[in-house]
Amino acid sequence: MTKNNNVPQIRFKGFTDTWEQRKVGDVLSESRDAGHSGDIAKKLTVKLWGKGVYAKDDKGSAATQYFTRHAGQFIYSKLDFLNSAFGVIPKELESYESTADLPAFDCLGVEPYFMFYRAIQPSFYLMNGMIADGSRKAKRIHVETFLDMPLDLPSIEEQQKVASYFIQLDNLITLHQRKCETLKKLKKSMLQKMFPKNGKSVPEIRFAGFTDAWEQRKLGECVTFLDTMRKPLKESEREKGIYPYYGASGIVDYVSDYIFDEELVLLSEDGANITDRNYPVCFLASGKYWVNNHAHVLKVNAENENNFICNSLERMDFTQYNSGMAMPKLNKDVCYNIPLFCPVYEEQKQIGDFFRHLDALITLHQRKLETLKKLKKSMLQKMFI
Question: What is the full per-residue pLDDT of the chain (385 aa) written as tens digits?
Fold first, then answer.
């Protein structure tokens, strides 16, 4: 057993010993607990990129041999080693089964989650995975190859501390992911319920005190198009700076100058996203910024509210207004005549403010999520050798 003089950059208080260089096979032992053959109900799989172990509901072949897996075992995918397919079997999947292509291991001297967090780092799965054996196009990392890989280990007590830290970090990441998803679902639902459905002149949900029917207007009656003020800049013409440079679906760059200095509504003019809807088609821009010729610039008239008009447009299906052939396009003349249902300004303001608050919450959790993910990436590099 050799000593590795290296120690991680960051350690918990009280741990000073150097980590020992071992082989994976010194601390993991393959489990070959024979299970069923053929189609079974309780199968599990390992997801890519360190996303863990989950139940699997597809049918197996009649000739397939399965092996029973147990909570706390480390497991990986032979075929997707280079895609960071690792996990620890959770309690709820006790006695679920997998094939030999998803080998599982009893941990005999290593904390399972310490092994997991080490395995999902590129310096482990990518570097060690390059020695993949086999002759198939999609190469497999067989058990004997995996067990021969080097592994630096501290004491079991330090392993447990490190593993516990990253488990808590992952729990926080999951919490903010779920909050983001919940808020986005709420927004989608409220966009349907706080605006009139087809054939209706009032929405399903309204703020107290508003009872009048909404009036139908054309977009061109609610806004002034400022398209003549926008200016496209080739990438080679852009001088880097602090001002957002907007395109069809949001900020695409930052430049040293600006055209607009007020809150305006931007509506995509062209691009596949008009029909695909993977990104916002309509969004607000505020402060100082530049806009290219791929987004219409709309200044909302005094009797209308910016965020109300923005969300009125964002919730629409623009397929019927697409005038492009090879590439989807929302031409100005067509946009001018898009029908909108509008209540009085006071109701517009309350609806607009409601969605501003919701968007702010979504942004808050997204930023926390991004911060936590960056922290995790940094700490994985600093708390392991």
Answer: 444 468 899 999 999 999 999 999 999 999 988 888 777 778 999 999 999 999 987 766 667 889 999 999 999 999 899 999 999 999 999 999 999 999 999 999 899 999 999 999 999 998 888 766 544 455 789 999 999 999 999 999 999 999 999 999 999 999 999 999 999 999 999 999 999 998 889 999 999 999 999 999 999 999 999 999 999 999 999 999 999 999 998 999 999 999 999 999 999 999 998 998 888 999 999 999 999 999 999 999 999 999 999 999 999 999 999 988 788 999 999 999 999 999 999 999 999 999 999 999 999 999 999 999 999 999 999 999 8
Query: CA of 62: how far to CAs of 37, 59, 66, 115, in Å?
Result: 7, 9, 11, 34
Q: What is the pTM of this model?
A: 0.83
Whether 250 and 268 have beta carbons less than 8 Å apart is answered as: no
Domains of the chain, each with CATH number or no CATH: 20-153 (3.90.220.20), 215-342 (3.90.220.20)
Q: Are 82 and 50 in contact (CB under 8 A)?
A: no
SS3 assignment, position 275: helix
Q: How many CB atoms lie within 10 A of CB 132?
A: 17
Please compute, for residue 101, the number of CA atoms within 13 A of its CA located in the half-sphere on the CB side: 11
CA-to-CA dists, residue 20 to 26, 103, 155, angstroms: 11, 25, 9
360-385 per-residue burial string, b: 16 or more CB within 10 A, e: under 16: ebbeebbebbeebeeebeebbeebbb
315-326 core/surface letters (b: 16 or more CB in 10 A; e: else): bbebeebbeeee
Beta strand residue intervals within 209-364, DSSP E: 215-218, 223-225, 240-247, 250-255, 260-261, 264-268, 282-285, 288-291, 295-300, 339-342
User: Distance between CA atoms of 329 and 321, rounded to whole angstroms?
Assistant: 8
Sheet containing 20-23: which strands, arranged edge to edge?
2-3, 20-23, 150-153
